[in-house]
Amino acid sequence: MSAQPRGGEGADLAGRVILVAGAAGGLGAAATRACAQAGATVVMLGRKVAKLNRVYDSAAQLGPEPLLYPLDLEGASPDDYAALAERLESEVGRLDGVLHCAADFAGLTPFASGDPAAFARAIHVNLTARAWLTQACLPLLRQREDAAVVFALDDVQRVGQAYWGGYGVAQYGLRGLIESLHHELRNGPVRVCGLQPGPMRTGLRARAFTHEEDAAPVDPAQYADAAVQLLAADGLAWRGKVRDLTG
Questions:
Q1: Less CB within 10 Å around the terminal CB: N or C of the chain?
Q2: Residue 3's closest CA among 108, 80, 109, 91?
Q3: How do residues 70-91 score in pLDDT, each as one tens digit?
Q4: Run of H or E residues at 230
Q5: Looking at the domain assignment, is residue 8 inside a domain?
Q6: For the chain, what is the domain count?
């Protein structure tokens, strides 16, 4: 992992270092490109190296050279996240924001016949791993005058219904995590908020809906600018809140 922050003058994220978890996924990839275009050095965290490399190539043409950090959130331990934070401090020297886009969803399954391991995996990747990563990054984030932690959320009115299993349950937990962290951090430099985009054309959604029955989703790139705004200084207005774009 190497490179130093650089960015164009006047860009919303110029000079900032932003960690995007799930940078190879739909919203994560779009947000990585948008953050780079806004002047940020993006640390791209994900488990699929080939996909990360493709996003890296496109993001590098838009702004500062991104940094790659392959890591599988399912198997990563708190020590792994601590090691990530240590490398960021030693090699980059700062961290200004974390955008949580990594997600796990195996598909719609009746609870009575679901795989217990799949349920536990969904809770871990969608909730616990995000909490562990945030905890490890807090000391670095607190060194900045303004830092942001943004959690990408799904609509609980939809995924909190039947068959969504651990993924749906984790979405309720994420809202509790945002609320708890906000009350702990509201008097300091680190702000916490949520971003709830509308339906997106992603692999995750395709596991729940076939193309024929689902005409609602749009390109995740349509929500990438909202992620940039929440990570930038203007995002202060959303401290402790969820920016709901489903309407």
A1: C
A2: 91
A3: 999 999 999 999 999 999 999 9
A4: helix 224-231
A5: no
A6: 1
